[in-house]
Design a protein that fits this description.
- The protein is α/β, with parallel strands linked by helices.
- The protein has a single domain, classed as Arginase, Chain A, CATH 3.40.800.10.
- Helices cover 34% and strands 14% of the residues.
- The protein starts with a strand and ends in an 8-residue tail after the last helix.
Length: 279
């Protein structure tokens, strides 16, 4: 059974125009009936610490939040349910990573308009974990985030596929090319289709992989909803163990149309999965 769990954290984002509004994602999708329409059980909420306008303070608070979120995700998995975690920003991936690493070896299907691989191995500065989450979960950050309870790295590079990137940061792509992470950017994804990790895996979906504006870092182009549904159905028909949705910002969606579209996208995705053994 699907279990919807809210993780309304915005700790991983910089305050570009005030406090980031992505913490309202779960509330907005719930208002569109996402729980009942998915036929899911309500797994509640993991309340996040207050947001600070000092990113160092947010990073410090993130370790405790990650442990709390990991424990709740583990509880859903222990109950035999399929977690659908509603963020929040991309830093909630750390919670899934810790929860899964405690259970064994798992992969990651990273569906995102960006690669989120900023780290000090190649970049002059870091700070906002939402732009670094793929680096953090592969061990490239301070131990308080990348090695919580001695569990890092949470995912092995060869167990990760990154799908849909369109930012085209040359330095970031060069850094990723030195890893075993498989990258299939937006053009390659459209040309060749998605692929799955070779081990059971978590699905991360950043809403900015879509061609929408109500996200923290919008960019031209992106997948259509129909394309995203096709990608997610493919991933869910494999050995997926859970899914998270991040970065939609309802404060940038005054008429609520994107919230309705995202909810419809999730409902249609799960409704069209032919192999439902995982969910």
């Amino acid at each position: 059974m699907i279990a919807v769990l809210d993780a309304p954290s915005n700790l991983g984002l910089r305050p570009l125009y005030g406090e980031p509004g992505v913490s309202g994602l779960a509330r907005a999708l719930r208002a569109c009936g996402v729980v009942s329409r998915l036929g899911a059980r309500d797994a509640g909420v993991v309340a996040a610490p207050p947001y600070s306008f000092e990113m160092a303070s947010n990073r410090a608070a993130m370790a405790g939040y990650t442990r709390d979120l990991a424990a709740r995700i583990a509880g859903v998995l222990d109950a035999g349910d399929f977690p659908v975690v509603l963020g929040g920003d991309c830093s909630i991936l750390l919670g899934a990573g810790v929860a899964l690493k405690r259970r064994g070896r798992y992969g990651l299907a990273f569906v995102d308009g960006h690669l989120d691989f900023r780290n000090l191995e190649w970049a002059p500065a870091v700070g906002a974990v939402a732009g670094e989450d793929l680096a953090v979960v592969t061990g490239r950050a301070e131990p308080s985030l990348a090695d919580i309870d001695g569990l890092g790295p949470y995912f092995l590079e060869g167990d990760i596929v990154a799908l849909g990137e369109r930012e085209g940061d040359v330095d970031e792509r060069r850094a990723l090319a030195r890893t075993d992470i498989t990258v299939r950017d937006l053009a390659q994804l459209r040309a060749s289709g998605p692929l799955r990790p070779s081990v059971p895996y978590w699905i991360h979906v950043d809403a900015d992989v879509l061609a929408i504006s109500a996200v923290d870092s919008p960019a031209p182009g992106g997948l259509t909803y129909e394309e995203l549904i096709t990608v997610l159905r493919f991933l869910l028909a494999g050995d997926a163990v859970g899914l998270q949705v991040t970065v939609y910002d309802p404060s940038l969606d005054p008429d609520g149309s994107t919230a309705r579209e995202l909810t419809d996208c999730l409902v249609q995705t799960f409704g069209g999965v032919t192999d439902t053994s995982a969910v």
